[in-house]
Structures are given as C-alpha cells and as structure tokens.
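Trying the structure run again after the queue cleared.
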Amino acid sequence: MTEPMQLRDRTTRGSKRFGRSRREFLRTLGISAAAAPFALSLPSLGWAGSNVAKPKKRIVFVFSPNGVIPKHFWPDNTGADYDVKRILEPLAGFQSRMTTLHGVNNQIRGDGDGHMRGIGCLLTGIELFPGDVQGGSDTPAGWSMGISVDQKIKNHLQANEQTRTRYGSLEFGVMVPDRADTWTRLSYAGPNQPVAPIDNPYQMFDRLYGKTHDRELLGSVLDGVVDDLRRLKKVVSSEDYQLLEDHLAMVRKVESDLKIERESIQRSSELETKDLGHAVPELTPNVEEENDNMPEITRMQIELLTSAFRSDFARVATFQITNSVGNPKMRWLDIDESHHSLSHEPDSNAEAYEKLIRINTWYAEQVAALAKRLDETPEPGADGSMLDHTTIVWTNELGKGNSHTRNNIPFVFVGDGLGFKTGQAMDFGGVPHNRLLMSFLQAFDCPQESFGNPDFCGDGVLNDLFV
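Done. Tokens:
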C-alpha cells in the first residue's frame, strides 16, 4: 500500500474515531479555524459528499427585471430543432443543454401593482398580503403570503443529513437598492418573511469565509491557510487538495479585485476633490458608483457562487440582478437611459426597442458566464462538471415590460442537475406557473399536492418537463 493510501486510511479511521467531533479531529491535524470551513466540506475526510448516496442536485434562480422583447427572445419553433433568437445568442453554446419554457403564466392576482406581484409571487405562487406599499395606480400591498420554492427546497435538503449543507441556501444580489419593499425581495422564508439578498461582494465574502475586521491582516491569514493546506495534503485525496488550492486562488483573486476597485474609487474621489476645491458630495446609493461597477460586481458574485457550490456550502441559491422596476443605466453598453424607463416605451420607439434588446442580451451574457464557470469546474467527488449537477433557472417578473403582462413569464433552464429535458424549446400553452414550482419540488424528491395558491395547482406537475 502506498504512503498516501496509508494516510488516507488512517484519516478515515480517525474520522470514525472522533465521530461527531469533526473540529476536534481537525485540531489534531493542526488545522486552524480559518481553514476548517474548507476542510469540513472535503469528501475524502468522510463528512461531505462521500456520504451522499445520490448525485448532488443544485438549483440557482437568476432574476433580471422588466420583461423581455418576445420577438427576439422566444424561439419560433418548438422541439429539439429550435432556433436561438438574438437575446439568447450568448447561450447558443449551451443550446443542447438549455430549455426554454413558453406559455407559463403567473396567474396570481390580488393587491399590489404588476411589478410587485411579478416578483413577490414569482417563486411563492401566492398572493401578497395587504399593506401600505403603494405601486402605480393599483392597491397597496405588503409581503408575500407564503414561502418561496427556493426556501422550500432548502428546508427539504437541510432536513436530511445526507443533503444538509453549511448554509442551505445563499441569496446573491447585484445592485439591489438598500431598502426593504416588495419590489426588492424575491425569496421568502415563509409568510411575511422576506429574505434579503446580499449584493455586496465584501459581505458575501465575509459570510462565506469569515469576517476579517482588519483587511491588512488578510495576507497573513491566507498564508496560515497555505500552511494548513500543506498539512491536509498528507491526509486527503489529490482531487480534494486541488479543490483547496483552487479555492484559495479564487479567494486571493476576489480579495485582490475588491482592493483594486476600492483604491481606484478612492483615487478618483481624491482627484475630483482636488479639482473642485471642495468635498465631493455623497452619491445616492445605487446610482453612480455601484451602477457603473455592475458588470464587475456581477462577475465577482458569479465567482463566489461557483466557489460556494463547489465547496458544498449550499445547493440552492438565488441570484437577483437588481430588482423589480430595476433602473440601472447600462453606460458600458452606451445606454444612458434607465432600464425601467426604457421598458415603458412603445414598440414603435425603434431606438428604445433596440436598447432593450441589448440590455436583455447583456443579462443573457451573465447567465452564460455563470453556466460557463460551472461547466469548466469539475464536479467534486463525481464525474462531469458542476453544470451536470446544477440547473440554472433564468426568469423575470414580467413577460413584457410595456404591457406589464405576467403571461409567458420568461423561464430558461441551463444545465442537467434536475433531470429535466434539455435541448428543447417547449410551449405549455398558458399553464399556471404554480405547476412549474411544483415541478422543481418534484425534481428534488419533495412532491407536493400544491404549492402557493392551490387553485392553480389542480393538474399537478408539468410531466412533459421530465425525461
């Protein structure tokens, strides 16, 4: 028996010997608290994927706002031989692993304007409570009356020791306004329990990898983790060691990127102050600095999400890019008008129409970037890539912006994680989206007689989705 195999065998016996005291076992190896979260997720130490009999299943709901341009979004023909329209062109490389779902309608009515019901009922499938948040000319409303499907799946997975993860679910955001109202919340832990996304990569980094109050000490902390990795190399598989090395490289890069960005903003502010001769006024949140950093923040969050999934910190995530009535100004696309304002323009406004196509194409590029990162990342402890075990669900609160319709809500799947048919353009002819939410639960072996408002669940799951 080779030396690595002997060590690995001793590690397995050691993990059994210490039983539930996982951290005690790591302490005997001299592993610090900084490296413990990484180590505890490694299959070869006996506490993670090696105990899971079935392949991992993951889902991430990606949200972008204000509807789409249907003519340049939906394929003209259904089935496997479907055409990829202009907005979906960034995903053309995943055509054989992608599914488009036309004819899925959000039929939830009640209080709130179209945008509020669009996002607040999207993953919950149930009405909003009466409230005092006024939107448009409709009645005011509050939070959703029920749990969202992502949190329902999370609870199901966390109830089983074999599928339980450190966080259960992660809620990522990009440029979500710093306020709590129905337009800014996609996920719900239960009735009247909105879950706030984390749209600051610093905060998400701290949640995933521990808070470092003095960031100047981060280098020495990471140097200590490097020493820990050298110790772990003796007792884990080569695949797990490579996972840790890649993980550490990602952490260093994200932290470096964030430091460079902060220094650049500080230099710009100092230069502007010098030129003006007075203090620079504080900018309104989510208008200037964060707005123009939106592509970079999105990239950082994609890296953090990929790393978190790879480390099995969670198997459920939401990725909320802005909010319902989202108003970014995509100046990096040479578009100075805000997204929501453009979405209200009539189709006859050719300039606005073209800009909306470009905006939605940019959102598709972000979905493609996430799919690419998952696809190029090997699945820890199993064959294939992480995209083989993950389904990305890209969706929206409206079918079309200027009509505020919630018919034909955009749903695009990428990946093979849930056992759904892929490489298909499907048309369900106007079914309630509650049946799709039930289908997600079915895919996670959590069948339900209804989800959300039972009035829209009578015909059950969408059987045609499943292989």
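Residues 1-20, 212-220, 271-289 have pLDDT under 50 and may be disordered. Worth checking whether this holds up in the mutant runs.
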